[in-house]
From TrEMBL:
It holds the Pfam family Cu-oxidase_3. This is Multicopper oxidase type 2. Transmembrane segments: none annotated. GO terms for molecular function: copper ion binding; oxidoreductase activity. Residues 170-249, 480-584 form the Plastocyanin-like domain. It comes from the Archaea.
Length: 590
């Protein structure tokens, strides 16, 4: 290895000290309520709602376009999707922003959000994601973060390369899709840029360039986003995210609003550099050095800052996605003292709920809480609100601990508006309260072969000065593991397991498992409280509140191989709150 491979020898010392401190087990952890959470709220001088006001957008123009196939391969539609730079207009009064996006065959540059990939249940797709980005990142890359230097990888693998470690790497994950390990977009399946004929370096777990998506699962609102080790937070903040909608006959049977009445909505927060700052006006603002949690003060929906959507007085279906790095959203309608429509949630991450859940005033749920990466399929009827303007509000604080503790209100209380036209109201096409939703497959607790104790922890000491969160797979009184430690968790293919997720930190964490869908069995101080009504369906991401235990059940079917589970606060994920697990065909640890 060359001298350039020695740029981060301090990483080895830092991780050694962390593991030594963590070996004290839970005795090394401060009480949950005693440790403040480091978080930074970024500001956008001149670009707040009070500065700019709402921008009017026809709802049809806000719907992300649909990605076209490039051709066919092995009898399946083939998509060549390039990650490329682009420019994006968030608001007429914000200068165009340099972004990174996904370029399809009909695009001139990278698109943010990425165009929607539409797929049908049981119909295979072939997708190739190609890194054509510049070799220098939009943001500063803090090389103290794990995964950003040669020293963070297997020495034998790293020794085959000379020169500087690639600053810009991408690995695209289809979030919620059941795929073989080689097509998962794992953190170490990254590739460096091939722009301008550059030699491509691929990560140590890279296996294939063309991914195989079999789509053998229920219809659902999925999404695709970057997942490169150590820079996921930066790549997604730069714009690398888009919808993946999986459709099936059971969905068509329901007769839900469709066409221009079906609207995917990507909720994010961003911060922009103002006219008196050092960076170009309108460019994204992100910390130069690693911060454990980062929020922006500008609401961005489908890439639009402060949107006021023009809708008709009729019923709509909204496919909601929290695509923020770390902000929770508690969504509700406000009508300045007037009545508001009820939101009916009919689906969650991986398909339909058992029953529709009403959200709104005088309902059991007043707002719809979405953690980063969670989705909600909702139906809203505007037919009784012609000529009215409804505001989408957010009651979730940042950082978020739990619904009972995050009571001081939100620093981003308004997200968007719906301005309902004055045309003739149209009757709703479905009654959400009487829909016969497809029944999710129920996982049997009696079939459980293993119950695993999984800890969510924050080591007390971090000599690098970086706030680090870790996962503990060996029991709550053992040391937590780092990303590069040996695989501990080995479910057997086809078996059912219960994971008990114990949160010993002051944060709420959205925990995501690759490959599988799961169901929430219980939550609360001891994991025995009933799941929330919005969780009574198949999920891939679950909120685990501070000091809480959440019990989930899953069957590890479909594929054997290496996968990961992690916190979906992207700053936590990048700084080692992520672990590999391996689905095996033999008995575990045989």
């Amino acid at each position: 290895m060359t001298d350039e491979h020695s740029q981060s020898n301090r990483r080895i010392d830092r991780r050694t000290v962390l593991k030594t401190g963590a070996a004290l087990g839970t005795a090394a952890m401060l009480p949950v309520a005693a440790r403040p959470t480091a978080a930074i709220g970024l500001t956008s001088p001149g670009f707040g709602l009070g500065d700019l006001g709402w921008q009017d957008v026809d709802i049809e123009d806000a719907i992300p376009g649909v990605m076209s196939p490039t051709g066919t391969r092995d009898g399946a539609p083939y998509y060549r999707v390039e990650m490329r730079p682009g420019t994006h207009s968030h608001h007429p009064d914000i200068p165009d922003t340099k972004v990174w996006g996904y370029k399809g065959p009909n695009d001139a540059e990278g698109q943010y959000p990425g165009k929607t990939i539409e797929a049908a249940v049981n119909r295979r797709l072939k997708v190739e994601f190609v890194n054509e980005l510049p070799d220098q990142h939009i943001f500063d890359v803090d090389t103290r973060v794990h995964g950003t230097t040669w020293e963070d990888y297997d020495e034998e693998w790293a020794s085959q390369y000379d020169g500087a470690f690639p600053e810009v790497r991408t690995s695209t994950h289809a979030h919620g899709l059941h795929v073989e390990s080689a097509s998962d977009g794992l953190p170490e399946q990254w590739s460096s840029s091939s722009a301008n004929g550059a030699d491509v370096i691929t990560g140590p777990q890279f296996e294939k360039a063309v991914y195989d998506y079999t789509n053998r699962q229920s219809p659902a609102t999925l999404w695709y986003h970057d997942h490169a080790l150590g820079t996921t937070r930066l790549n997604v903040y730069a714009g690398l995210a888009g919808f993946y909608l999986l459709r099936g006959p059971e969905e068509e049977r329901l007769g839900l609003p469709s066409g221009d009445r079906e609207v995917p909505m990507l909720f994010q927060d961003r911060a922009f550099n103002g006219p008196d700052e050092d960076e170009p006006t309108g460019s994204y603002k992100y910390p130069e050095e690693f911060e454990a949690e980062v929020s922006g003060d500008v609401s961005v929906v489908n890439g639009l800052a402060w949107p006021r959507f023009q809708v008709e007085p009729r019923q709509y279906r909204f496919r909601l996605l929290n695509g923020s790095n770390g902000r929770f959203f508690g969504l509700a309608f406000d009508n300045e003292g007037g009545t508001v429509p009820t939101m009916y949630q009919i689906g969650t991450d991986l398909g339909f709920l058992r029953d529709a859940v009403a959200v709104g005033p005088d309902q059991s749920k007043e707002s719809l809480l979405l953690a980063p990466a969670e989705r909600a399929d909702v139906v809203v009827d505007f037919s009784e609100h012609a000529g009215e303007t409804l505001t989408v509000t957010n009651d979730a604080g940042f950082p978020f601990e739990s619904p009972s503790e995050s009571t001081d209100g939100s620093d981003l209380p308004e997200l968007a508006q719906f301005e309902v036209g004055t045309g003739t109201p149209q009757d709703p096409v479905v009654d959400p309260t009487s829909l016969r939703l497809p029944e999710p497959e129920q996982f049997s607790e009696q079939a459980t072969v293993t119950t695993r104790q999984m800890g969510l922890v924050s080591p007390e000491n971090d000599p690098s000065g970086i706030d680090t969160h870790l996962l503990n797979e060996g029991g709550l009184d053992t040391e937590p593991e780092h990303w590069g430690d040996d695989v501990v968790t080995e479910p057997q293919l086809g078996t059912t397991e219960i994971w008990e997720l114990h949160n010993q930190t002051p944060d709420a964490h959205p925990i995501h498992l690759h490959l599988v869908d799961f169901q929430v069995v219980g939550r609360g101080p001891d994991g025995t409280d009933a799941p929330d009504p919005t969780e009574r369906g198949n999920k891939d991401t679950v909120k685990v509140y501070a000091g809480e235990t959440v019990r989930i059940i899953s069957r590890f079917g479909n594929f054997a191989g290496r996968y990961v589970w992690h916190c979906h606060i992207l700053e936590h994920e990048d700084q080692e709150m992520m672990r590999p697990y391996e689905v095996v065909t033999r008995s575990p640890k045989e």
